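User: If you would, consider this record:
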Amino acid sequence: MSPETSRAAPAPGALLLCRAGVESVAPAAQLLREPMLLSPAGAEWSVLVPEGTPWRPGAGPLEPVDRVLTGWATALAVGAPWPVLALWWDADRSGYTLASGFRRPVGYDWLANGTPAGEDEAMRTFAARLGLDPVLDVQDLEVLTKPDSEADARARVRGLLAVLTRAGVALPAGLVPGEPAGRLREAARAHPETRHVEWPGRREAVRAGLVAVDRGRLGPWLPWSGDPRARALALAHVAVGLPLAAWGVRQRSGGWITAGALLIAHGALGLTYELIRPRD
């Protein structure tokens, strides 16, 4: 690795790509309790830029950026019918995590000099879950898993995004992987269609959660749908959320605690609705 590449190691930063429009993403993102900047990122995509940096920039008490972003992506995906892709980087590594529903998140990372540090199967799973071309797109993704002395970690993530442009991803100008978090925030704020998303308070958050789910393809599973699957889904949310939140507490992982708490909140909301609004 050349001295220039070494000096170019990126400061911590992150982006969250959601395969949904901003109107669907905004109410779901409010439940993360983290201030975000939300912008369109293509015809079927939106991007969330964190306004804060609740991750460890170096040695310190906070969590590493990859763990925080994995928790956020999981929390968003479990309550929505669309996948969430977290892109993250720091001075040592860069990578991604793809969360989709209740399925186990899949991810890949590279060392700062571009050395692959993930499993090849992760790329194929990634392509399948996003419905990418099983031949052309997978071939381009597999190139990212091979040694390349000319590509550092920043270039690897940009290569990933180049493949995703064929799936409709178009990041706003200035939102470039590898840039520091502060520069990403400035670029997002400069975009005319960017909106600010933050925790609206408990009552409005419950309403936002209902809107986020109602705008998806989960109609039969909603508490007010009258479908017996609704109560089963609510129970499943609570059953999965409790151990997930407990595991997050043991690991001192704010991201996983958020994911578990969001599941519990969704489940409790469904069960409560059944009690106060009995079916005919």
User: Anything to note?
Assistant: Residues 1-9, 213-226 have pLDDT under 50 and may be disordered. Residues 229-251 form the longest helix (23 residues).
